[in-house]
Amino acid sequence: MRRVGICRRRIERLIFRRSTSPSDPLRHIRMNSSLARAILVFSAVLTSSACHRSGGSTTAATPQGAAARAMRGLPAGVTPRTIALGDSLFHASSCTRCHGADAKGAQNGPNLTTATHIHVNGTYEDFVRLITSGVPKDSVQDKSRRFGMQPRGGTQKPLNDEQIRAVAAYVYSLSHQ
After folding, report:
1. Cα–chain-centroid distance for residue 75?
2. Cα–Cα dist 97/84, whole Å
3. Could you give the CA distance from residue 176 to residue 119 in angstroms, rounded to a whole number?
4. In the prediction, which pLDDT does 146 show?
5. pLDDT at 22 > cutoff 80
6. Model confidence over 84-100: pLDDT tens digits?
7. How far is Cα 157 from Cα 133, in angstroms, rounded to an integer?
8. What percent of the chain has pLDDT over 90?
C-alpha cells in the first residue's frame, strides 16, 4: 500500500509542479490547460495502478510456464500438469535414448519437435496409439533407423495407460508450440 502512495505522489508532483523554465516542453500544458491537466491526472491514475500491479510476482520460464502458454490449443483432458508429468517420464524412461534429451531426434529415433511426423498424423490420440502399440522394426518407414519402437516404452518398465497419455501429451505439446 505504501508503494502505491509513493508512486502516486511522484506522479502528482510531476504534473502539478509549476515550471518557469523556458526549456520545459510541458510548461504551457501544466500552467494553462485544464483539459490537459485532467488528461494528465487520468494518466497518473492509470500509471500509479500499473506501478502497483507490476510490483507483484514475476513469471519464470519453466516447462510448466510453457505448458500454460500452450494451454489454449490443447486437446480435451490434457493439462499443463499432464504435460509436466509426461516431460518427467520422457526423460526418466528409455525415450531419450532414441529421440534425444531435447527430443530433436537421434540415430535411432525421429525428431519429435516438428510438425512433420512419420508414423502418426500429429493428433494427441494418434500419439497415444503409437506409444501404446509401438512401431515394429519391419514397419519403420525411415530405413536408416536400426530399431523399432517398443510398445509402452519398452519391456524394462512398461508405461501404464495414464503414463502413456502423459508422455503423449508432452510429445504433442512439443510439436504444437
Report:
1. 16
2. 19
3. 16
4. 80
5. no
6. 999 999 999 889 988 99
7. 15
8. 29
Q: CA nearest 99: which of 86, 107, 89, 109?
A: 109
Specify the higher pLDDT residue, 94 or 19.
Answer: 94
Q: Which residues contact 97 (CB under 8 A, 6 or more apart)?
A: 106, 108, 109
Distance linking the first and last C-alpha atoms of the chain: 39
For residue 43, how far is the Cα from the chain centroid? Answer: 32
Rounded to whole angstroms, the Cα distance separating 50 from 120 reads: 47
CA distance 111 to 84: 19
Domain 63-175 fold = Cytochrome Bc1 Complex; Chain D, domain 2 (1.10.760)
**What are residue 151's DSSP bridge partners?**
none
Where in the chain do CATH 1.10.760.10 domains reside?
63-175
Please tell me the least confidently modeled range out of 64-73, 87-96, 158-167. 64-73
48 vs 31: which has the higher pLDDT: 48
Q: Which residues contact 15 (CB under 8 A, 6 or more apart)?
A: 30, 37, 40, 41, 44
